[in-house]
Amino acid sequence: METADTIWQNGEFVPWDEATTHVLSHGLHYGTGVFEGIRCYETERGPAVFRHREHLDRLQKSAELYYFQLPYSTEQLREATHELIRRNELGSCYIRPLAYRGYGNLGLYATDAPIDVIVAAFPWGVYLGEEGQRHGIRARVSSWRTISGDSLIPHAKAAGQYLNSVLAKTEATNAGYDEAILLDQYGRVSEGSGENVFVVRDGTICTPPHTAAILDGITRNSVVQIARDLGYTVEERDIARAELYLADEVFLTGTAAELVPVREVDDHPLGEPGEITRVIQAKLDDALHGRAEEYLEWLDFVERITAAA
Ligand code: PPE
How much is the pLDDT for 306? Predict the structure, then answer.
């Protein structure tokens, strides 16, 4: 991975290589951590973090869902992140806040293990590649079903839950595909290993609802709003597996991936990205980079400290 100079760890800026943790940290053993994936983009007005507050709110909620309290407020984390971007002299970058139960005690009810919090920021290109973003990727429906609300909390972005995504992604990649699409426990379309899914049929844009064990994606929400603002009909409804094959267009959305067209599902060709995908992808790109006046409120601009300040 590409590195940066410093990482914010429990309130301090420490050199990248020194941002380490004890091997008996609770989170390493049981996956007791919550995290976020956020992107910052270079804009005409300097670096801007996309929907920063929504991401940090989701982090706080993920923590609360697993019964732990972050020792830092959203505002403290936001300021720490701005300072981190400045200190690392980053423009476009990926931001990874993580809060995990640290070293103190093992066992499952280890409330005396502290909650450690880090924020890292570093350069990271689009997750499924530039080529994939332009011409679409090849997806495969996973043999692994997505985690269900019966056992875990799909709405939380929790570290341990990602073992499910790792299984799906590994299976798809080993079989020569770019990404996995997971079904929920009832066989309905849920989401990608790290993205939400959209299906376009007869001009209507559909995406699985909250009941389909999805993460409530911030890019998903942005895309729904953009699509509606552009006059498209967007339906949140159950999607059958076969609709992935019968679709006019399919695309995935996520912070790391942004908006990625899907050109093939389970060896059924969908072809080059369709018009609706293209139009929404372009608008999202404008919003991310501060070129869409109507979505400027989604950007949290990082003040540059001038030499005189
Ligand atoms: N579903 C899952 C399971 C998921 O991990 C993500 C984000 C999304 C949907 C889309 O959510 P949002 O980013 O708010 O639009 N995945 C993050 C982590 C990916 C990774 O490989 O790590 C991300 O995109 O940053």
Answer: 58
β-strand partners of 99? 34, 117
pTM of the model: 0.97
263 token code pair: 């050109």
CA of 192 to the centre of ligand 1 (A): 9
Residues with CB under 6 A from ligand 1: 37, 165, 191, 194-196, 215, 217-220, 253-257
pLDDT tens profile 135-164: 999 999 999 999 999 999 999 999 999 999
pLDDT at 307: 53
Instruction: Give all strands (DSSP E) within the chain, no chain letters.
Output: 6-9, 12-15, 33-35, 38-43, 46-50, 93-101, 115-122, 137-141, 179-183, 189-192, 196-201, 204-207, 233-236, 249-254, 258-265, 268-269, 299-301
In whole angstroms, what is the distance from residue 90 CA to residue 119 CA? 14
Q: Which two tokens stand for residue 145?
A: 């079903």
Q: What confidence score (pLDDT) does residue 187 get? A: 98
Counting atoms of ligand 1 from 1, which one is nearest the CA of 219?
15
The domains found in the chain, sorted by start residue, are 6-122 (3.30.470.10), 130-292 (3.20.10.10)
How confident is the model at residue 309, as a pLDDT? 47
> Is 169 an active-site residue?
no
User: Hey, whose CA ends up nearest to atom 10 of ligand 1?
Assistant: 254
At residue 305, the pLDDT reads 77
Compute the distance from residue 202 Cα to the ligand 1 centre, in Å: 28
| Radius of gyration of the CA atoms of the chain, in A | 20
Atom of ligand 1 lying closest to residue 256 CA: 24
Name the stretches of the chain with pLDDT < 50: 309
Residue found by looking up tokens 């999202």 in the block: 284
* 208 and 190 Cβ atoms separated by less than 8 Å: yes
